Amino acid sequence: MRRDGGPTVSVSLLNYRGARFFDECLGALERLDPAPSEIVAVDNASPDGSGAELRARAERARGAPVRFVPSERNRGYAGGHNLGARSGSGDYIAFLNVTTVPEPGWLSVVDWMEAHPEVGFAMPAIFHRADPTRVESLGSRFVRSGGFRVVGRNLRERPGVTGPEYASEVNSVLGAAFVARRSSFERLGGFDESMFMYFEETDLCWRGWLRGDRSACWFDPARPTRVRHTMHGTHPGGFDVARYFEPNRTLSLFRNLEGRTLPWLLPQAGRVAYELAGTPRRMLRYGWDVARRLPDSAERRRPLQRERTVPDRRIFGLEPEPPLAQWFDGSEGGPD
């Protein structure tokens, strides 16, 4: 992207058992305009042979140069995308899972970020791949119960809307597709690889907020700037998302909340205990995972709190959202 002296963009494309998504995802990447400077295609030691197929496709790709980077083991989302980020050199890093289909103008968000230097992380409007007008996420906003609200979930994009551009602060982007300013990402040390998968993008954005790097959602309804996504598209049947999500959320709250707001952790932990009470094995696994990682989280908490420049009252008091009815119909919320 931008061979005229402007910013460069590296795409970190992460695969794990995702061969059935290659045609749509890789085809969409070839059509990006503006195009990235490079695409780093990371295979997370897929056991199904899709890594070999990804390598072959990288070698014959059209458009931006594609470099295949195999991981010797499954590093999860956090480690896989950290590897992709280290392997690229762009001023911006566009993180993309192979289960996504970006529209051609998706990377126009970089122009918007150039005009908003306070933003370290920005996501597009993300819609369901199988239901293209239904919103999956416009980002997440924290609530004091330790949970968060997925902005726009299950709203429908209004047909024929051509403006204005949508732009809104969020506490966290959705990890399936977002763009990071490399300087912000590297200053934060990238994703926390102890999280493996789930909540790692929220933890990254939260650590960014502590230091003044804001997160946002941006898209232009008049241009092809959306991304469509298949949720949990490469998970095997019966995969337990909560096994990773809930311990990661608990420990992120513990590390990132101020001392005076740390009690907000209790409702979240209590809710998890209530939800898992009927499955003692899952409850014990959650408790064990939190307990064994707590000393390390305590060590990480100290510099985070010492070096933070933004108080929780700002992080939990984002700027008001624009009225969603300008762009969307329906009621927000409900099941995914």
How does this model look, in words?
It is a single chain. Helices cover 34% and strands 21% of the residues. With 336 residues, it is an alpha/beta fold. The chain has a single domain (1-336), classed as Spore Coat Polysaccharide Biosynthesis Protein SpsA, Chain A (Alpha-Beta Complex), CATH 3.90.550.10. Helix 7 packs antiparallel against helix 8 (265-276) and helix 7 runs parallel beside helix 9 (280-307). It starts with 8 loop residues before the first strand and ends in a 7-residue tail after the last strand.
Indicate the topology.
Blueprint lengths: L8 E7 L6 H9 L7 E6 L6 H10 L6 E5 L5 H12 L4 E6 L2 E3 L6 H6 L4 E5 L2 E3 L2 E7 L2 E3 L5 E3 L5 E2 L8 E5 L6 E5 H6 L12 H11 L3 E6 L7 E3 L12 H15 L8 H12 L3 H28 L4 H4 L12 E2 L7
Parallel strand pairs: 1-2, 1-4, 2-3, 6-14, 7-15
Antiparallel strand pairs: 4-13, 5-15, 6-13, 7-8, 9-10, 11-16, 12-14
Helix pairs in contact: 6-7, 7-8, 7-9
Total strand count, please?
A: 16
Provide the CATH superfamily: Spore Coat Polysaccharide Biosynthesis Protein SpsA, Chain A
Largest sheet: 8 strands, mixed
**SS-based class:** alpha/beta
CATH architecture: Alpha-Beta Complex
- Distance between the amino and carboxyl termini: 34 Å
Give the strand content: 15-25%
Question: Helix and strand succession?
Answer: EHEHEHEEHEEEEEEEEHHEEHHHHE
Please identify the top-level CATH class: Alpha Beta
Question: Reading side by side through the largest sheet, how are the strands ordered?
Answer: 3-2-1-4-13-6-14-12
- CATH-defined fold name: Spore Coat Polysaccharide Biosynthesis Protein SpsA, Chain A
- Count up the domains: 1
Radius of gyration: 19 Å
Q: How many helices in DSSP terms?
A: 10
